[in-house]
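The protein record quoted for completeness.
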Amino acid sequence: MNRLLPALLAALLLAGCTAAPKTPVPSSAPSSGTAGAEAQTSPAPEPTPSPTPLPANWHRIQPAQDGTVTLAFTGDVNFADDWYIMERYRSSGRSSFADNFSPDLLELMRGADILLCNNEFCLSDRGTPMPGKLYTFRASPFDAVYWYDMGADLVSLANNHCADYGTDAFLDTLDVLKDAGIPYIGAGRDLAEAQQAQYFVVGDRTIAFVGATRAEKYILTPQAAQDSPGVLYTYDPEETLEAIRTAADNADFVVVYVHWGTEGSTTLEQAQTDLATAYAEAGADLIVGSHPHILQGAGWRGDVPVFYSLGNFWFNMETEDTALLCVTLEADDSLTCRLRPCLQSGGITSLMTDPDDIASVLDGLSAVMESGSFAPDGTLLPQDD
């Protein structure tokens, strides 16, 4: 799919995307300029060694603030071309995809050192809808540029819609994201790739991201295997736990982004709480969920925060509460998790600013909290607080 790269880059320029993934740390290079005869007669300096190239799943970025790392997370996002919310955007007259988000929300999304979103569709112009599925989602390969508008730095493909149009479209999705420079987790051409974490070196800390899914009542999305493509299943969690342990060996902080739970329900499945415990014991430092299409409560596994569902972030034309999760890692390794309530309505997702609206969302979540509680500003508090 390398043929897509020039077209994607051209589309980026035409779209006026100003929020590409954060600028990598520039590598050191000796100056090639000289000034005057004295400079010309001076001994040539020893060349500066080039930095050792990072593996493809490692990324070096400069934090916005020294000593602090900021992470942000959304729930489900859907760019499917024939789906209601995308049709509304294309008929709205809005000049940029970024206009689908309130300016204050977009500032938070783009301002995070790392923003992770759920890519709940395939990116391809091939394939046919998977038999037996009520809803199937496919977006044009050129729609990948919208991740830049949102400020996304990586996406999760560990969900029940990334393979909706068959193997060819699934493999196209991997290629399109790779060619667009958007790392993904939770899926791959084989099990090894699906288990592979994405690592971000931010200042002097390494953050790892692992994705997995157990979202289907009738399991149709293919499971990645030793020699076949698919997503990382966590019905039996052992392969996910192996991925978490590997990430923990290589990183200072491990995020698990998991697709799980019952659609439309705030009641947690036993599997969610059991898996959260297993993930924490394997080395996860933060667990973030999606799939139920609504907000679910949060909780703790020891000192590991768990957000069970962030809901639909930009997904359909329903009016629904959603949220942006903002996480800050301080220089002293302290961790703050703040849920920023939002509203998806009429094809636009906006940050809530009215104190009563914010309190209503947080109070509703507090009623179904698995443990802990929310402060009035959305900060997750330990159970003892």
Observations:
- The radius of gyration is 21 Å.
- The chain has a mean pLDDT of 89.
